[in-house]
Amino acid sequence: MRPIKSFVLISLTVLAACSSGGLGDSADGVYAPGIARNGQEVDPLVVGHRLMAAGEFELALEAYTRAAGQQGLNVDTLSALGSANLQLGRLGQAEQFLRRAVQEEGDFPAAWNNLGVILMERGKIAEAAETFRRAYATDSGNSDEIRDNLRLALAKLENPGYVGTQENEEFQLVYGEDVNFIPFEPL
To answer: How confident is the model at residue 167 (pLDDT cuts 50, 70, 90)?
Structure first.
């Protein structure tokens, strides 16, 4: 029986080596970065942000975990881990990471905004509205997406039956230093 297992294992290894798959360039332009030939590694937070934008939330979570291993659990990594967990539907974990992020640095608009999205998803509308207010204030009102999130939360607070005037009205997640946005699709 043992020779058969060895044969199967060797066969699978050979077949895997012949595969043209992998993490190379793809037709849709989304690919993982290769080995850095000049010895400089790409920041895993940047990789994670790109993967989030591409809708690859599980891979983004792995990149953010690598970033946390390298940089520690700072406000950037905590916020990123929370956002990835939110997109994966892990609301409890996401909320814990984002609450830690806003405790760590109270003037980080992305963390406040994404915490507000979680609170909305959990039905804590009053707390979410206050959280979006803080996000908007810490961003000095510069973000249209955070303003829209605040507007939607206040509309739902005033009228719990409010569903929006447009079919595609949804809350926006914020990620990255440059305040990039991803639509959040409710669970």
So the answer is: very low
